Amino acid sequence: MLVFNCTKTAAEFFTVTRQGKKQSPLEKPPTPAIIDTQHENLPVSSWLVHAIKVQRKNVLIAMHVHTRYAMVFTGLQKGNYAEFSRQWLERLFNNMQFFGKQFELCDETSFHTMVEQFIRQNPNPCFCQRGDRSVQSHISDVVWNIEYLADETGGLPEDLVQASLFDESINSTLRSTKTHKDYFHPDEEMFLEWISQYGKLDRSEEPQVREYFRALRLQMPPLLPVPEHQDEMQGITETVLRNNFEGKPARVDNVIDFQQARANKKSK
Description:
This is DUF6933 domain-containing protein. InterPro entries: DUF6933 (IPR053864). Pfam families: DUF6933. Residues 4-189 form the DUF6933 domain. The chain is of the alpha/beta class. The protein is globular, with a radius of gyration of 18 Å. The chain has one domain (2-267). The longest helix has 22 residues, at 81-102. It contains 9 helices and 9 strands. 47% of the residues lie in helices and 16% in strands. Helix 3 runs parallel beside helix 8 (230-244).
């Protein structure tokens, strides 16, 4: 089950009044606590969503409760929770597919299977209002980073490439929680959870994946090949969004090539 736990500002963002009637996706929390990982014997993917204003634009921050993996969304219209869900899913698929192909742990066919497994376990998102101090403290750090970026560059991420680069930056930052014995990188923990939950990664393979991440942090990621089954991947993603997330079809144009994106940024 996919749960979007909303802070007060996020709950207000997703709630609108139209023709005198209040409209909101918020419902009763499905589990007693935000950190619960099971609901009716099914796994729970719990996220905390927070809303702020930066340069008079709406900014939403979604952070995974257990791995502290975060994604930032800008320019969304108030009350449009379907569009938020669409962009959230599009970004997560792109970011996870990047690491899967980078480490040669999946191809188009196997990633297709992971997407289907994700939808079977998370058919529709649940929006509810509640928070968590520990997660909120890490979200506050992301808020500082997005505000600093806006001040330094004069703007916010405007497209999938820019947003994914920002995601990469904040998720490669070391973090700590009471439930983790050591410091950790959110991108590493999130990918391990993703591929273990929806792929076929064996526990014995986890140390090798961590080695891949260590090597990746020491060098720029190499160029990725263009997926051979791009049309098929486009089709499955659009179907998922249309049938399960009540949003218009998304454009998942290829795994984000961080090296080329950085090169383009430097050349400007």
